[in-house]
Design a protein that fits this description.
Blueprint (H helix, E strand, L loop, with lengths): L13 H28 L4 H25 L5 H21 L3 H10 L12 H12 L3 H25 L2 H8 L4 H33 L22 H19 L3 H12 L3 H19 L2 H8 L1 H21 L3 H15 L2 H11 L6 H13 L4 H11 L5 H21 L6
Helix pairs in contact: 1-6, 1-8, 1-10, 1-11, 2-4, 2-16, 2-17, 3-4, 3-8, 5-16, 6-11, 6-12, 6-15, 7-8, 9-16, 9-17, 9-18, 10-17, 11-14, 12-13, 13-14, 13-15, 13-18
Length: 415
């Protein structure tokens, strides 16, 4: 396997997970930008859009908690298939429904992701398998970097694809709303392909009879188990991630797009182009994470790139013109995601192998549960005319999180 696809010391089975992440990243990329425009086209208000975004994150949190608490009782392969089929149902539900309450139900139980990162139930299931595929800490960090790169790059392309309904309406003459519905049907089709990829991964594992298979606890001492020895550190990390995730929830991509629509009258096509460029910068920056982590450590990599990103976010909230705001947001994008592979690798490194699936779940929960409050609060602030408030609060809270993380874990040993 070429080194640019998989780093040395990684099981080739990880390619199935990278392919899944790319497809889901593409779908999440266009949905996050398209969602507020689609819901406005259905006649929903700003606060209703925020509530629906909140429900998507809250539902993801509940599903992730369930995986962490009860997932060890079921075969991981079966849970992955259920998640993929739920993605299919989510896309069809949003394509076929138009009233608020039915959409709210689908948003809560489905897999829709209004943010720039992966906050769905897929995350703990895939992270545990990724961690198992790497032989040591260096390979693990590099693999998580590839995983984040695959998701980020495809999400950038997906953001650009969000402009397709506007192009279709302008050049073909079809209804923009119908084209938006088609994008949610595409989301369902992508979920079907992800299900097929998972089947391929499971078949690969069965053929090679992997000694570390999570689906055979009797033959594998590293089979998934509930949190035990690592419970204390996981609880502390989860508490810190609550701060970061609540701050991020104020400015998930759907809310940032809504802010650009409200503050500067930005078009959907222009927003798609911006999020494409933003996504490329975020993706490119993640390539530096393994190199930085080797030189300065995982925690320092997270903190010393995240704080400047928050400063530029605060500057964007105060920018008087659209070009100035976009410039600040693009610089922020170039810095804000270098912590992602480092954070994921750090969580996997400080817990025992059998606890990795549970740790991934319980540390991922704040990324959706705590952030779930954010979109409703942000949309209320936008509706009341306090347009700069979500960005200011997000930047300030993230700086608090970074300083607390640095103080608590800077010298913590990792595997």
């Amino acid at each position: 396997m070429p080194s640019w696809i998989l780093p040395a010391g990684v099981d080739p089975a990880a390619t199935w997970l990278l392919a899944s992440r790319m497809l889901r990243g593409f779908a999440d990329g266009y949905v996050a930008v398209l969602l507020p425009a689609y819901l406005r086209a259905l006649g929903l208000g700003v606060i209703e859009i925020g509530v629906l975004s909140t429900l998507t994150l809250a539902g993801s949190a509940m599903a992730t908690i369930a995986v962490g608490a009860l997932g060890h009782r079921f075969r991981a392969s079966r849970l992955m298939q259920v998640a993929a089929l739920t993605m299919v149902a989510t896309g069809l539900g949003f394509a076929g429904l138009h009233a608020f309450w039915p959409l709210a139900l689908v948003a809560f139980v489905g897999t829709l992701n209004p943010s720039s990162g992966d906050v769905s139930v897929f995350l703990p299931l895939e992270h545990a398998r990724l961690a198992r595929a790497a032989i040591d800490s260096s390979a693990r960090t590099a693999l998580f970097s590839r995983y984040a790169l695959a998701g980020g790059l495809s999400a950038a392309v997906g953001a650009l694809a969000s402009a397709w309904p506007a192009w279709w309406s302008a050049h073909v003459g079809g209804a923009a709303l119908g084209a938006m519905r088609a994008m949610f049907v595409l989301y369902a089709l992508i979920g079907g392909v992800v299900a097929l990829l998972y089947r391929g991964l499971i078949a690969h594992e069965q053929r090679h009879q992997a000694a570390t298979s999570q689906d055979n606890a009797s033959a594998n001492p590293d089979a998934p188990r509930p949190l035990g020895p690592s419970r204390g550190i996981v609880i502390r990390l989860a508490g810190l991630f609550c701060i970061d995730s609540f701050a991020g929830g104020l400015l998930v991509n759907s809310m940032l797009a809504l802010w650009l629509f409200q503050r500067f009258g930005m078009t959907l096509a222009a927003a798609g182009q911006f999020f494409f460029c933003s996504g490329l910068l975020m993706t490119a920056s993640q390539l530096l994470a393994p190199m930085l982590a080797r030189r300065i450590g995982l925690v320092n990599t997270m903190v010393f790139t995240h704080i400047p990103a928050s400063v530029f976010l605060i500057a964007a909230s105060l920018a008087p013109t659209l070009p100035a705001a976009l410039a600040c947001l693009l610089v922020r994008s170039a810095l804000s995601s270098m912590d992602v592979p480092a954070r994921n690798a750090f969580v996997m490194a400080v817990v025992t192998p059998p606890e990795r699936a549970a740790a991934a779940s319980f540390t991922a929960v704040p990324r959706s549960l705590a952030s779930a409050l954010g979109p409703t609060i942000a949309s209320s602030l936008l509706a009341s005319g306090m347009l700069a408030a979500p960005l200011l609060a997000c930047g300030a809270l993230k700086i608090v999180y970074d300083l607390a993380l640095l103080g608590m874990f800077r010298r913590h040993p990792v595997d």
